C-alpha cells in the first residue's frame, strides 16, 4: 500500500511543481490576460473588484476563481464581478473543455448574447461551474446559462436570477444532447418573453439531473413558467421546489411535450398558475403529446388553471402518468381541479386528493377514454 501511495505522489509531483497561480491584477491586468497566460492545471486567482470584460477559456483546463477559492468566504462571490458590458456572453466555453476547467466564486452579470448564453455559454464543452451568482443577463436562448450541443457541465451552488431569454430558457437552456448535473441551485425570477421555459428549458434529447433545486417566481410568455421539457428529453428532479411560477398558456409550474419522460421525487409543486382566456392548462403540471411522468413523494398544492389545476394530462396510447405517495390539495380549475386526464393511462398508489375546486379527477369522455387505476 505504501509503495502505491509513493508511486502516485511521485507521479503527481511534477504536475504540482509545474502548476502556476496567476494573480489578477498583480501578474496580469485582466482575467482574460490571465487565461491567455495560463496552461493546463494553472489557477487564475482574481482579487475583489469589477472586471468589465468577456472571458473565453479557449480550451484550457484551468481554474479561474475569486478569493472564495482560497478562503471559502462566500462574501467574495458578490465582491468579485465579471461584467459583460452587453457585449456577448460573459464567459464562454466552446473548445471542448471538460470538468477540470473550473469557474468559481464570481458574480456574472450584464451579458447580452445572440443566440446562446447571456451569462455563461457552454457549446460542446462540459466545465465545472460552482459558487456563482448569475444575474441580469440576456440571450435569445439561455439568458443565464446555455448548455448546447453535447455540453454536460457540473453546476453546483449557483444562484440564477433575473435573467431573460427572448425565446427559450430564461434561466437555463439545455439542448441538443446536453445533460448537465446540477446540485444546490436557485433559479429565481427569470423570464422567457416570447416562448418557453421561464426558469428552465430542456429539449432535443437532453437529460439533465437536478438535485436540491428551487425554481421560483419565473415566467414564460407561452409554455412552462418554471420548467419546459420537450423533444425526447428525460430530466430527473430530486428534492425540488417548483413554486409561484406563471405561464401565459400552459404549464405554470412544469410543461412537458413531445415524447418526454420526466421524473420527480421528493418535490413540492405549489402556487403556480396558467390561465389563458378560460383555456389555460395545467397550473402545476401540463403533460401532453405522447409524454409521460413518474411522480413519487410529491406535494401538488394551491395551483391554478382553467383546466387541470394540479395536473393536466393529455396523452396517447403510449403515455402514462404514475403517481405514488402524491398529495393534491387546494388546486383550482373550472374543469379537473386536481387532475384533468384524457387519452392516457393514470396509475395512482397511496395518493391523497382533497379540497381541489372542481372535480378531483376529470376523465375526458373522448373517443379514447383514459385508464385510471387507484391502489390504496
Notable traits:
38 strands; about 10% helix; 4 helices; mainly beta; 12-stranded parallel sheet; disordered N terminus; elongated; about 375 residues; 18-stranded parallel sheet
What does this structure look like?
Helix 2 (31-37) links the parallel strand 1 (21-24) and strand 2 (43-46). The protein has 4 helices and 38 strands. It is elongated and about 70 Å long. The protein has 376 residues and is mostly beta strands.
Based on helices, strands and strand pairing, what is the structural class? mainly beta
Quote the distance from N terminus to C terminus. Answer: 55 Å
Counted beta strands: 38
Helix content: under 10%
Which runs of at least 5 residues are low in confidence (pLDDT < 50)?
1-13
Shape: elongated
Percentage of residues in DSSP E strands: over 45%
User: Number of helix segments?
Assistant: 4
Q: Mean pLDDT across all residues, rounded?
A: 91
Radius of gyration, CA atoms, in whole angstroms: 22 Å
Biggest sheet, in brief? 18 strands, parallel
Amino acid at each position: 500500500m505504501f509503495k502505491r501511495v509513493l508511486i502516485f505522489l511521485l507521479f503527481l509531483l511534477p504536475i504540482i511543481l509545474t502548476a502556476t497561480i496567476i494573480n489578477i491584477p498583480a501578474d496580469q491586468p485582466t482575467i482574460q490576460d490571465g487565461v491567455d497566460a495560463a496552461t493546463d492545471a494553472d489557477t487564475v486567482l482574481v482579487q475583489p473588484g469589477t472586471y468589465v470584460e468577456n472571458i473565453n477559456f479557449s480550451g484550457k483546463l484551468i481554474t479561474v476563481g475569486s478569493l472564495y477559492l482560497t478562503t471559502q468566504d462566500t462574501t467574495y462571490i458578490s465582491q468579485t464581478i465579471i461584467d459583460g458590458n452587453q457585449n456577448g456572453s460573459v464567459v464562454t466555453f466552446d473548445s471542448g473543455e471538460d470538468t477540470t476547467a473550473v469557474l468559481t466564486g464570481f458574480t456574472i452579470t450584464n451579458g447580452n448574447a445572440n443566440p446562446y448564453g447571456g451569462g455563461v455559454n457552454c457549446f460542446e464543452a462540459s466545465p465545472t461551474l460552482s459558487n456563482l451568482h448569475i444575474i441580469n443577463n440576456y440571450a435569445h436562448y439561455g439568458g443565464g446559462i446555455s448548455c448546447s450541443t453535447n455540453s454536460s457541465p457540473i453546476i453546483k451552488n449557483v444562484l440564477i436570477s433575473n435573467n431573460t431569454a427572448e425565446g427559450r430558457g430564461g434561466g437555463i437552456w439545455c439542448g441538443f444532447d446536453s445533460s448537465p448535473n446540477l446540485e444546490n441551485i436557485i433559479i429565481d425570477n427569470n423570464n422567457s418573453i416570447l416562448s418557453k421555459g421561464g426558469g428552465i428549458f430542456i429539449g432535443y434529447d437532453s437529460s439533465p439531473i437536478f438535485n436540491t433545486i428551487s425554481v421560483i417566481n419565473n415566467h414564460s410568455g407561452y409554455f412552462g413558467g418554471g420548467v419546459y421539457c420537450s423533444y425526447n428529453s428525460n430530466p430527473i428532479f430530486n428534492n425540488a421546489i417548483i413554486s409561484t411560477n406563471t405561464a401565459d398558456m400552459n404549464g405554470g409550474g412544469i410543461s412537458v411535450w413531445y415524447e418526454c419522460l420526466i421524473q420527480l421525487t421528493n418535490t413540492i409543486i405549489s402556487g403556480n398558475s396558467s390561465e389563458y382566456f378560460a383555456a389555460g392548462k395545467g397550473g402545476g403540471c401540463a403533460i401532453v403529446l405522447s409524454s409521460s411522468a413518474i411522480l413519487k413523494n410529491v406535494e401538488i398544492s394551491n395551483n391554478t388553471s382553467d383546466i387541470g389545476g394540479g395536473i393536466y394530462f393529455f396523452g396517447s396510447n403510449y403515455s402514462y402518468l404514475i403517481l405514488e405517495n402524491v398529495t393534491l390539495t387546494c388546486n383550482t380549475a373550472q374543469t379537473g381541479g386536481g387532475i384533468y386526464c384524457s387519452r392516457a393511462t393514470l396509475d395512482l398508489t397511496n395518493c391523497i386528493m382533497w379540497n381541489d375546486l372542481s372535480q378531483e379527477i376529470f376523465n375526458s369522455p373522448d373517443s379514447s377514454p383514459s385508464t385510471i387505476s387507484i391502489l390504496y
